[in-house]
Design goal:
Elements (H helix, E strand, L loop, with lengths): L2 H34 L22 H23 L5 H23 L4 H29 L2
Helix pairs in contact: 1-2, 1-4, 2-3, 3-4
């Protein structure tokens, strides 16, 4: 592996770690808050936001948020720390999960908040970072 690829791999690992922690910690907090206060009061979310969804409160969305974006992001972060050989794919998958969460949220809630754009960008950056990590790993395996 060339020195440039080594630097890029380290930089991509740092970027992925920061994005995963940002998403994971925020989702754990948000999901836990929604599970603990399903009326949304802890996060100042009005129940009226759920009028176009199949949910009467935020309990189920909170559980999904906690698991899919919270626990999974922390799991992928752990895989990154332990240099698991499929980490790049896991980072890409977490980006897809986060982007999917945001798209479904916007479609169901029919409300917009700037945080949705920010998290959509985080999801996209996770995907791109994972893709770039995968390319570097492929080049290393091919001996380029």
């Amino acid at each position: 592996m060339s020195p440039f690829e080594q630097i890029m791999k380290r930089l991509l690992t740092i970027v992925a770690a920061v994005l995963l922690l940002f998403n994971g910690i925020g989702a754990l907090y948000g999901g836990w808050s929604l599970m603990t206060y399903p009326d949304g009061s802890n996060l100042q979310l009005p129940l009226a936001w759920l009028e176009h969804t199949p949910f009467s409160d935020f309990l189920i969305p909170g559980i999904v948020l906690f698991i899919a974006n919270g626990l999974c992001s922390i799991f992928v972060f752990s895989a990154l720390l332990f240099s698991y050989n499929k980490t790049a794919l896991l980072v890409m998958a977490q980006g897809i999960i986060l982007m999917g969460w945001i798209v479904v949220q916007v479609l169901l809630v029919q409300k917009y908040h700037p945080l949705q754009l920010l998290l959509g960008i985080v999801g996209f950056l996770l995907f791109v970072t994972g893709w770039a990590m995968r390319r570097i790993n492929q080049n290393k395996e091919e001996g380029k």
